[in-house]
Amino acid sequence: QKAVKATSKYHSTSDDEDSQQNSSGKETGHLHRLARRRKTVKLCRALSDLVVYTNSVAAQDIVDDGSTGNVLSFSETRAHQAVQQKAEQFMLYNQKQLTRVYPSAYRIDSSNFNPLPYWNVGCQLVALNYQSEGRVMQLNDAKFRVNGNCGYVLKPQQMCKGTFNPYSSDPLPASPKKQLILKIISGQQLPKPPDSMLGDRGEVRYSDANKCFHESSRFLWTCFPKFLFCFTGFNPVWEETLTFTIHMPEIALVRFLVWDHDPIGRDFVGQRTLAFSSLVPGYRHVYLEGLTEASIFVHITINEIYGK
């Protein structure tokens, strides 16, 4: 349309304005060429059909409008309500359409929410503040490291058809479960945290993990056990055994943490978060992230169990 208007304007001008219209004529010719070039572009229909354009739609609640191209965007507050009140309905919805959960606008410090509840009901896009390090980003890294950090991880088949209540004590009673037996043997090259009052004389001892496991018991089927230790020396020995029942090993994460038992100073030593599917039975060194030689020496046993 621009080209047609420019052409008509060019022909209606007087001879006295010819010099001024030369540049306009050049632009007109350029527009004609562009229009002609656009008309001759050929698209491969099969390739074009593979492209899916999505439309982000702000949502207050789960609404099935049948528009497969829509991505329902929930703030973490709304998503939390949906998970608490309509977990099964939320999972069914995520089998047909895309949902996205993003941090609340009140997180002005760029902090993050726990992504596990939203992954557990099948939300495909759980947006986090990548500029903020910490436990949440460590969980996120472990989740996607399974597929080489390529950007996506396939959901297990149980979440793609049918439904179950993730808050149930036994959400998949007919499915076999995994029993994880972890023998925490010793630690190697464990440094003291900065500003430790006791210095190298600090004590590294085993701390009760049951309290930590109880914290995640609402998601037993994803089993997010944490193993906490308080600090006793450069190469401590624990020889402690922990046993966990994992209801859905495909999405379970196992988190190792080492803490320093010191009344003054920083108490966190290091951590390593792994997907359950990455664990290999036998004697293993679990290297703490960000520390060159620090590791935990463990023995891993995985059994398949049935029933409660």
TrEMBL record:
<dbReference type="GO" id="GO:0004435">
    <property type="term" value="F:phosphatidylinositol-4,5-bisphosphate phospholipase C activity"/>
</dbReference>
<feature type="domain" description="C2">
    <location>
        <begin position="161"/>
        <end position="290"/>
    </location>
</feature>
<feature type="domain" description="PI-PLC Y-box">
    <location>
        <begin position="47"/>
        <end position="159"/>
    </location>
</feature>
<dbReference type="InterPro" id="IPR001192">
    <property type="entry name" value="PI-PLC_fam"/>
</dbReference>
<dbReference type="InterPro" id="IPR035892">
    <property type="entry name" value="C2_domain_sf"/>
</dbReference>
<dbReference type="GO" id="GO:0016042">
    <property type="term" value="P:lipid catabolic process"/>
</dbReference>
<dbReference type="GO" id="GO:0046488">
    <property type="term" value="P:phosphatidylinositol metabolic process"/>
</dbReference>
<dbReference type="InterPro" id="IPR000008">
    <property type="entry name" value="C2_dom"/>
</dbReference>
<dbReference type="Pfam" id="PF00168">
    <property type="entry name" value="C2"/>
</dbReference>
<keyword id="KW-0442">Lipid degradation</keyword>
<dbReference type="InterPro" id="IPR017946">
    <property type="entry name" value="PLC-like_Pdiesterase_TIM-brl"/>
</dbReference>
<dbReference type="GO" id="GO:0048015">
    <property type="term" value="P:phosphatidylinositol-mediated signaling"/>
</dbReference>
<feature type="region of interest" description="Disordered">
    <location>
        <begin position="1"/>
        <end position="33"/>
    </location>
</feature>
<dbReference type="GO" id="GO:0051209">
    <property type="term" value="P:release of sequestered calcium ion into cytosol"/>
</dbReference>
<dbReference type="InterPro" id="IPR001711">
    <property type="entry name" value="PLipase_C_Pinositol-sp_Y"/>
</dbReference>
<protein>
    <recommendedName>
        <fullName>Phosphoinositide phospholipase C</fullName>
        <ecNumber>3.1.4.11</ecNumber>
    </recommendedName>
</protein>
<keyword id="KW-0443">Lipid metabolism</keyword>
<dbReference type="GO" id="GO:0005737">
    <property type="term" value="C:cytoplasm"/>
</dbReference>
<dbReference type="Pfam" id="PF00387">
    <property type="entry name" value="PI-PLC-Y"/>
</dbReference>
<keyword id="KW-0378">Hydrolase</keyword>
